[in-house]
Amino acid sequence: MKLLPYLETNRLEAGCDEVGRGCLCGPVVAAAVILPPDYANELINDSKKLNKKNREELVQEIQSRAIAWAIAEASVLEIDEINILNASFLAMSRAVEALTTPPEHLLIDGNRFRSTLELPYDCIIKGDGKFASIAAASILAKVYRDKMMAEYAMEYPGYGWERNAGYPTKEHRKGIHQFGITPHHRRSFKLLPDQLELEF
């Protein structure tokens, strides 16, 4: 399905998305992207539907063609302090604030959003599969975060972050069981099941 270029014509819209909400470690990362109204690239889609090579190739394309783009984070400490949902909103707000061209309207991936930004917005469920700007934001955020987790993996081997990006895979849980938690782990998350029934 071809993604829509905008929700409303003649309006500067920024698509916003985040990645890493379901991870056990690392920051939550968000991106905001304003695309030209006539921009079209059939390869741009929800980042989860693209392979790693496609995503990485599209990053340069998005960054060079966008009117403005920005990537921002909310840290592990912030996640533990204000919870993952509020940290996701915070990361998205930071990305919007970092845009060099201020948008007139936000397209937010998901079903809710809270922010101190004084900007109108629409929440769009599965928006990364409907609007090109949200899909572009999801690609930028995912590639940025995956690279960050691969770098963390060199510092803390044994958790498989270069493969699982911090998501709760069997390999990651096994690493927590064997080596304990790292400064990158979210202490407010349930890092291991009560009954550790993993088939190692």
UniProtKB/TrEMBL annotation:
Its cofactor is Mn(2+); Mg(2+). A divalent metal cation binds at D17, E18, D109. The keyword Ribosomal protein does not apply. Its main location: cytoplasm. This is Ribonuclease HII. GO terms for biological process: DNA replication, removal of RNA primer; mismatch repair. One of its GO terms (cellular component) is ribonuclease H2 complex. Belongs to the RNase HII family. One of its GO terms (molecular function) is RNA binding. It catalyses: Endonucleolytic cleavage to 5'-phosphomonoester. Its EC number is 3.1.26.4. Manganese or magnesium. Binds 1 divalent metal ion per monomer in the absence of substrate. May bind a second metal ion after substrate binding. It is found in: Cytoplasm. InterPro entries: RNase_HII, RNase_HII/HIII, RNase_HII/HIII_dom, RNaseH-like_sf, RNaseH_sf. Residues 11-200 form the RNase H type-2 domain.
